[in-house]
Amino acid sequence: MAIVTLRDIHIAFGMEVVLNKLNLQLHRGEKVGMVGANGSGKSTILKLITGQIKADMGEMIKQRGLRIGYLPQESTFSGGRTVLEEMHASVGGILKLQKAIHAVSGEMESLSGSDLKAKMRQYDSLCHDFEAAGGYAYETRILATLAGIGFEPELHQVSTSALSGGQLSRLGLAQVLMQDTDLLLLDEPTNHLDLQATEWLERFLAGYNGAAVIISHDRSLLDKVACKIIEVEKQQAKVWNGNYSNYVRTREAVGLQQQREHVKRVEMVERTLDFIARNKDQEGMRKTARGRKTQLNRLLKENPDFLDKPAGEKTIDFSFGKSGKTSNLVLRCEELGKSFGDVTLFSELTFDVLSGERLGITGPNGTGKSTLLRLALGQMEPSAGSIRMAKTLRIGYLDQHGDVLDASKTVLEEASGSNPEMLPERIRNRLGAFLFTGDDVFKKCGDLSGGQRNRLMLCKLVLSEADVLVMDEPTNHLDIASREALEEALDDYGGTIIVVSHDRYFLDRVADKLLVIGVDSVGSRCIGKTEFAGIKPVYSHYASLVQTRLEAAEQKQESRRGGRRRRRPATAASKAKPKTPEELRRFNKYSIEQIEEMITEHERELARMKEQFGDAAIYKNPEQLAELQGSFEGKTAELELLYRAYERRLG
């Protein structure tokens, strides 16, 4: 049974029709990805389901009592609360139960007899509801959710008015995920998330029991999470079974079939017109020819789009020119180090980028990816070592924040600056390929949306005719069709590419080498560490390698534990044991089984601590890090004593 049904929905804003005769059903427990060009109506559908907007025509049916969690693209807060206070507000029902429990508990102190028994039943009922709602674990869930999406502990007590736009978006996501819901509506949830946070979100959604609709340009996320894809195109919605990759394959097959059918229809019309032309004046065939003409006219009148060629949504269409000058060595990094105060982003980093190579750079937010690009471009000085680009090469640079754009210039003026020798007509033609048409070219850069800014910067890259493309998050704000157009253009580009990206799908397709900054060997955040991968598809290979290392570490730990427990106590004929060392005497009062349990518990505690060492928040809080290191060292020393006590008991 569907939990949401949309029937013949029509929505228009002024003269612009956004949705027309749209039909859609959402079912319990299913995870659905929603794709489509920017402005196609995806966000409108979510707002319709939440009741923020109403359809001009059509019907919407929602299951009674359906609990919906909604994440808009831009999360807003009053600014009067801290991060933790906003998180507590998202579990208001639990806090209300908690207050009721405290109130009833206080009332019980002054009661007796039947009144006390009645109040105790009320107390038990409230406690049951509190437990069922996850009340005993909500604080832990809040902290785990904030950590999962990359919120450092030092931000927990910060007012939301002091947060950046990206931090507000992440807080909005954390709030929604904390709510007790049957349906999650997430509009671009991975915006402002790094890879680690995105992978955490994937695990959350995989374990979430409710249904979810996820608008996203992250194709890897849609591959891993979605069981269906809703494509919003031409004011309607079409549902495709399977994940994103299956949707692409099926859609290509359907598109090919539609093209073949179009060819058949055109050929049929041409044959009919030819028959009519040859036979309209022939004795004995005039009546047949008139009949054919009548049938054809009726067919075309009843089906005005009968001869229309299948066409997709308009998207960017471009290619990078051939690189001119060449140099075998494009970039050399030797013993590079960069620190900011006590934080060292990297040290002794050494690698080369050769002509024609495609280096992808990724890693958690705040670990130095953009800094590395700025060092390579000479925009800042290293703390140690050196990094330099070949001076004879033309460098094209795309900045993820658009800081290279002059807000006071028009789109046409900004684009012309990349190639002053090119005629304005040709510049406008190039801008048209990036969807800047008509008066769009006279817009001020400061008035452009994020997607428009990114498209303009891509256009400037093309116009620069660069030998080396240096790009910082080039897929930001681009819809999937535009990302694929960029990937195809980069496939045909013969120059060198150095690109920072969190888009796993993009990295797999574009890069042939991968530098992962700010992680240890098992993928945990660790500022100052780096990992390299060089087998295509590079990110998928790297992720597989990390998973193999994690499994090997777990097997080694299990083997160590199992091998220790297979040993048997010595026989009665064994020699008398020497006197117990003083540091082990306190364990004499425990049985060998009890010591085994203590060892197991210590190992679990140490494993949990090791996971904490991978948390970005720990490294940004010196006191917390020192406390964790002290606890880890103490627990390790205690475990060694337990091992010795255990081995001594076994003889």
Secondary structure elements and pairings:
Layout: E1 2-13, E2 16-27, E3 31-35, H1 42-50, E4 57-62, E5 68-71, H2 83-89, H3 92-108, H4 113-132, H5 138-148, H6 165-178, E6 183-187, H7 195-207, E7 211-215, H8 219-225, E8 228-233, E9 236-241, H9 244-279, H10 286-302, E10 329-340, E11 343-354, E12 358-362, H11 369-376, E13 384-389, E14 395-398, H12 411-416, H13 424-433, H14 450-464, E15 468-472, H15 480-492, E16 496-500, H16 504-510, E17 513-519, E18 525-533, H17 538-566, H18 592-613, H19 616-619, H20 622-650
Parallel strand pairs: 3-7, 3-8, 5-6, 6-7, 12-16, 12-17, 14-15, 15-16
Antiparallel strand pairs: 1-2, 1-4, 8-9, 10-11, 10-13, 17-18
Helix pairs in contact: 2-6, 3-4, 5-6, 9-10, 18-20
The 3D shape can be described as globular
Number of helices: 20
Weakly predicted, low-confidence segments: 568-577
CATH architecture of the domain at 329-400 and 464-545: 3-Layer(aba) Sandwich
Measured as a percent range, the helix fraction is 40-55%
- The overall pLDDT average reads 87
Summarize this entry quickly.
With 651 residues, the chain is an alpha/beta fold. The chain contains 20 helices and 18 strands.
Structural descriptors:
Rossmann fold, six-stranded mixed beta sheet, 651 residues, alpha/beta, globular, 18 strands, 20 helices
Structure in words:
The chain is α/β, with parallel strands linked by helices and 651 residues long. Helices cover 45% and strands 19% of the residues. It is built from 20 helices and 18 strands. The protein has helices spanning 42-50, 83-89, 92-108, 113-132, 138-148, 165-178, 195-207, 219-225, 244-279, 286-302, 369-376, 411-416, 424-433, 450-464, 480-492, 504-510, 538-566, 592-613, 616-619, 622-650; strands at 2-13, 16-27, 31-35, 57-62, 68-71, 183-187, 211-215, 228-233, 236-241, 329-340, 343-354, 358-362, 384-389, 395-398, 468-472, 496-500, 513-519, 525-533. A six-stranded mixed β-sheet has the order 5-6-7-3-8-9, sandwiched between helices. Strands 14-15-16-12-17-18 form a six-stranded mixed β-sheet, with helices on both faces. Strand 8 (228-233) and strand 9 form a beta hairpin. Helix 5 (138-148) packs antiparallel against helix 6. It is globular, with a radius of gyration of 32 Å. Residues 568-577 have low confidence and may be disordered.
